[in-house]
Design brief:
The complex is a heterodimer of chains A (about 300) and B (about 170).
Chain A lengths: L5 H6 L5 H9 L1 H14 L1 E2 L5 H14 L13 H22 L2 E5 L6 E4 L5 E4 L4 E5 L7 E12 L6 E5 L2 E5 L3 E7 L2 E8 L2 E4 L4 E4 L3 E6 L5 E4 L11 E8 H12 L2 E5 L6 E7 L3 H9 L4 E7 L2 E6 L1
Parallel strand pairs in A: 6-7, 16-19
Antiparallel strand pairs in A: 2-5, 3-4, 4-6, 5-6, 6-9, 7-8, 8-11, 9-10, 10-13, 11-12, 13-14, 15-17, 18-19
Chain B lengths: L10 H23 L2 H17 L6 H18 L9 E2 L12 H20 L2 H11 L5 H8 L3 H19 L3
Helix pairs in contact in B: 1-2, 1-3, 1-5, 2-3, 4-7, 5-7, 6-7
The chains are: A alpha+beta (about 300), B mainly alpha (about 170).
Amino acid sequence: MDNDNFLGRWIAGELTEEERTTFEQSADYLAYKDILRATEKFERPTFDIEKRLAQQRVYNQTYTEAPKQKTIKLNSWYYVAATAAVLVALIGIKSLFFTSTTIQTAIAETKVWTLPDQSTVTLNADSAITYDETTFDTHRIVILEGEAFFDITTGSTFTVQTSNGAITVLGTQFNVQNRETFFGVNCYEGKVQVQNKKDTAILTPQMGVHATNDSAFIPTTLTQTQPDWMQGRSSFQKAPLKQLIQELERQYAITIMTEGIDLTRQFSGSFAHDNLQKALKICFEPMQITYTFVSDKKIVLTNK
Amino acid sequence: MPQEKINVCEEKVYEQLYRAHAEKICYYIYYKYGDMEKAQDIVQDSFAKLWVNCSKIIFEAAKSYLYKVANNASISDYAHQKVVLKYKTTEQKSYTNESPEFQMEEKEFMDKLNTAIGNLKDKQREVFLLNRIEKKTYKEIAEMLGISVKAVEKRMHLALLNLRKRIGDI
């Protein structure tokens, strides 16, 4: 029975009458029957034809067959043509698929923007976000320059990319500050993961971290439920003076020049966005710095 | 009588081919390699190839073209996974004359069989499952795989023999 494909013929019903009766009386017969009966119970995974067909149509539009492996003579002309073709294709693809939207704020301006998923972004002065309108539903990615407060609806992972690191979340409220080499993230609700080149941190509400020049994260504890700048204030905790000056420039649309001042000195405190005189006084008087208006929009700082 | 040629490039014809063969090819590749996602990718690529080359392929040859492309793709892109099949469990009735022991034994048997099928050689498994689950005749399988009916019979025989050996006595 081991040769001549006996079982194969049995399943196809090609045994002779005599072979069959002998087999049906053997002990093996029941075991084989059991195997066949049990196999019937197996289910195949589902294959949704119509859904797949719809996907196929989309796939076909962009599908290009891998070139057949043919030996062709090396001819520099081919390279020129190929390079040109690739360039054209890339530009085509870019204009087709990357329909990016950019929202930006000018100096001394804040703006609230609603993303396609109903998450809101509040942009601080001189900041910008960029995202891809067409793919945003599936990939919630926002590229941020500057500073913004995010209130995110729950859903798929939401990623904020900046030049100094990335933040991924599921649905929450947080503030991201990405100014030159300074990178600060504060979490107000939910859970936020922050990552830069050196470090990763998971933030829970009322926690914040900041880093300068891709350093390890320095943790801070928050006392408010919203960033200060959203209530018209900018606040600092042991921030370098340079950062304070830049923020003043952004919020009041002024230029500040310094003469012989150590810009690495640390500043803790806050200033309001509606009164320049008061703000300058609060910031610089305790630091023994004199501020002089050279013109309406230009200020010079000197040591006392 | 001038017979009109059926054009594969026509969307209706193409969709008809898809509805007729996509699922079958997918299961065929799945039975062979046990990776449904991979099988779906291969099907997608095969049909995309058909679409790109639709002007060069006559309608009657489309089916064998699809199988050939799918087969080539699966061979060249070989990342084997063990086939693990899902199975219907016997429905729980409120009144049952099947004792819990019987149901336990049945589950054990199904699991054993599942592993045994996964451990079959690809060639035996594809034939066995195409015949038992897809209810394909030896002749249809032979055409699909491009082998003789006799070879299909042989593989079927070996598949059963091996399953019996691996499962042992019950």
